[in-house]
Design goal:
single chain; about 160 residues; mainly alpha; Serine Threonine Protein Phosphatase 5, Tetratricopeptide repeat
């Protein structure tokens, strides 16, 4: 089985978001990936951003800039993929604004809200939908009205 299955990548991403060692493992898993699968590239970009979180001050910006380039590549290949847009949104919405690398936050948030409200017609599977809805609502990225609308969508 390929280590690049969506469920496997989601698992590694969730672990990496919470733990430095898991972040290193996630980065190592994807660092050498050279294919053109848009979703795998989205996770590769996320692994680069997480690597930046744990890197020395001198290396942080290099990893974040690489992540931005990899996200651009993934979105260029499949801009309608809500999971890729979610990954970019989850990273960019946590970057310090002075870096100027959070250019897609509003666009991605609107895209994700629309996609989640159209579920299951949005192309997201149930697991991705639950993750996106939870992130938008729990982190207060959407208004109370939108949170209530999302709560009515069957997952």
């Amino acid at each position: 089985m390929s280590p690049y299955q969506p469920a496997t990548l989601r698992y590694h991403y969730e672990q990496a978001a919470a733990d430095k060692q898991a972040g290193d493992k996630f980065y190592q898993l994807l660092h050498g990936y050279t294919g053109q699968d848009a979703l795998v590239l989205g996770y590769k970009a996320a692994s680069e951003a997480i690597k930046a979180r744990d890197a020395s001050m001198l290396s942080k910006l290099t990893y974040v800039q690489q992540a931005a380039k990899t996200f651009d590549q993934a979105v260029a290949l499949d801009g309608d993929n809500a999971e890729i847009r979610f990954l970019r949104f989850s990273i960019e919405s946590n970057l310090p604004s002075f870096l100027g690398l959070s250019k897609h936050v509003d666009e991605d948030k609107a895209f994700l809200l629309d996609a989640a409200l159209q579920h299951p017609g949005s192309g997201m599977d149930a697991e991705a939908f639950q993750t996106v809805r939870g992130f938008l609502v729990d982190r207060k990225h959407v208004s109370d009205d939108d949170a209530q609308r999302l709560a009515r969508v069957k997952g």
